[in-house]
Amino acid sequence: MAKMNFGGVVENVVTRDEFTLEKAREVLKDEVVAIIGYGIQGPGQALNLKDNGINVIVGQRAGKTFDKAVGDGWVPGKTLFSIEEACEKATVIEYLLSDAAQIEQWPVVKKHLTAGKALYFSHGFGITFKERTGIVPPKDVDVIMVAPKGSGTSVRRLFLQGRGINSSFAVYQDATGRALERTLALGIAIGSGYLFETDFKREVYSDLTGERGTLMGAIQGILSAQYEVLREHGHSPSEAFNETVEELTQSLMPLFAEKGMDWMYANCSTTAQRGALDWMGPFHDATKPVFEKLYNEVACGNEAQRSIDANSKPDYREGLEKELKALRESELWRTGAAVRELRPENK
Q1: 230 and 142 within one domain
Q2: Is the separation of the CB atoms in 95 and 125 below 8 Å?
Q3: Measured on CA atoms in the order 314, 315, 319, 322, is the torsion positive or negative?
Q4: What amino acid positions are annotated as catalytic residues?
Q5: How confident is the prediction along the chain (347 residues), in pLDDT tens digits per residue?
Q6: Inside any domain, residue 203
């Protein structure tokens, strides 16, 4: 592993130059990798592994998602099986079901975790909160993780673009002496651009905080608050949306993604620079207590329990669709749909 300096802190990083795809293929040449769950992460990781020449099969329950896997080219009875059949055939079980579904299916999966197999996660939830999930692997299997820093859609899209998503990696249990090389090989084979080291607890704490914070929850809250203020002061929906969302996503995010926030500031007007530098402090001070509260709720397990309780309800999907429908039908995002139609590439 290479040592890299991140803002003054040295961390372990693995790149595709150091751990090549050819090396990954050699490490995995005798493995049968079973993707358990074809929902969010499953399709991207499965298809990337397949395209990279890894022996991969899919385990999925009957239903719409099973039909989606068939549509993606997985063949029932050959590369597509029930969850139990896939686990039985596998030497590496990629456990990519939702956190609630992992709890439900754990007895089936555990039954087929025979000595020497590897249990792979893309999220530290099940292991970190094992007292709540009941997911306790046997001692004679490797327990490993590669966690892409993005959705399964992005995992596949960036792979097809010849790029690669950033991923973290961790070894929780090394029963075979090969856990680390298995982890890195799988990380490269699913299309990671580079891999940085973590552990299961740090991954889930940072992941849950990020999803509820700047990645999803906080950004929606901030966007809707600014949009509402502009509308309440007489600005039109199109103007409020463009100044709140469109300029952020289409102009400014690509700039600071490319070279950093200072470079984005340097490529904006002096008036914008002055205002941003003056107001970032008040926004920091207003939101940091919320992030502290959020992190503490994650660390004590309350957030995990809320997720388990909510996502295990029989009518979970109906309730979720109701909440997403309300979001989709808000003026903010109905305006967004209209604005997207006006983009030249969508005409």
Answers
A1: no
A2: no
A3: positive
A4: 123
A5: 888 898 999 998 999 999 999 999 999 999 999 999 999 899 999 999 999 999 999 999 999 999 999 999 999 999 999 999 999 999 999 999 999 999 999 999 999 999 999 999 999 999 999 999 999 999 999 999 999 998 999 999 999 999 999 999 999 999 999 999 999 999 999 999 999 999 999 999 999 999 999 999 999 999 999 999 999 999 999 999 999 999 999 999 999 999 999 999 999 999 999 999 999 999 999 999 999 999 999 999 999 999 999 999 999 999 999 999 999 999 999 999 999 999 988 87
A6: no
* Interacting residues of 330 by C-beta distance below 8 A, sequence separation 6+: 224
Quote the CA–CA distance of 95 and 92 in Å, as a whole number.
9
d(CA 208, CA 147): 13
**Closest to 38 in 3D by CA, of 22, 18, 62, 19:** 62
Q: Name the burial class of residue 77, with classes exposed (0-12), middle (13-18) and buried (19+) by CB atoms within 10 angstroms of its CB.
A: exposed
CATH classification at residue 281: 1.10.1040.10
8 A C-beta contact, residue 76 and residue 38 = no
Pairing of strands 56-59, 165-173: unpaired
Q: Which of 166, 198, 230 is the last residue of a domain?
A: 198
Range of the structural domain that residue 256 is part of: 210-346
The answer to whether 57 and 81 are in contact (CB under 8 A) is: yes
